[in-house]
Prior knowledge:
The protein has helices spanning 19-32, 40-44, 50-59, 68-80, 93-102, 115-124, 148-156, 171-179, 211-219, and strands at residues 6-9, 16-17, 88-89, 106-110, 133-135, 164-168, 183-187, 205-207. By secondary structure, the protein is of the alpha/beta class. The protein is globular and about 55 Å long.
Amino acid sequence: MRTIRTVLFDLDGTLLDTAPDLADALNAVLAEHHRPPRSFEEIRGVVSHGGIALIRLGFELDESHPDFQPLRQRLLALYCDNLSRKTRPFPGMDEVLDQLETQGYNWGVVTNKPGWLTDPLLKDLGLFSRAACVVSGDTLMTRKPHPAPMLFACERAGSTPEHCVYVGDARRDIEAGRNAGMHTLVALFGYLQAHDRPHEWHADGMIQAPSDLLAWLTRL
């Protein structure tokens, strides 16, 4: 029997390159408040950590500041209106998904992004109906790195943790997969920051490009 039956992906920075649209949304909010734009490279590094991290970066505010939540809501509203304008799967990911399906694997998504953003984005890109499961940040009461979303995804995909591999680009992704008893891979092509130390995350492997996932499965 093959060891892996199901491949689960983080969304931002792993399955999809969402940074361009999120960067545009943040810079639009900054422009509305007569602030200079942030560089794409600055923004790219924090995209995996969501809207809170983006507002912290752009406005240098703490979450306790009274302006913080209104700014975050404005960011998300602008982003929602332009979810898939520039967002695409990472280069090579379309071919990886095709190969997974051809070889008899199923695949799904586990993300901390809320469902009202996750589902329409995946539908826009023609991926929602292909996924065996889509678990968003508000599907359950807990989010990554808690194992519950991972285990729920596993159940939805008709698999078990020991037969799943989770691919992500943040420490909490690897912690979530490990907490659930899954194999884990770090997507080095994702939104890692300079201070990240993925070799200390105790993942089962690291991949430099989406196609490396197929090679890892073959070796396994």
